[in-house]
């Protein structure tokens, strides 16, 4: 039973540490743009259209 006197405060301290880390990440802007990275991969940066094939070379 004496181990509970150690484990309960330890669990509370770990929970407060996790909560502090969460608020620190919120303040740092870690959760500002959740959809941006997911949508950025779908956007094509080049508007040139399909790549043109090079003409075949005569290899004689």
TrEMBL record:
Origin superkingdom:
Bacteria
Alphabetized, the UniProt keywords read: Membrane, Transmembrane, Transmembrane helix
Q: Coiled-coil segments, which residues? A: none
Q: Record keywords: Transcription regulation included?
A: no
Membrane-crossing ranges are 6-25
Pfam families associated with the record: FixS
- What this protein is called in its record is Cbb3-type cytochrome oxidase assembly protein CcoS
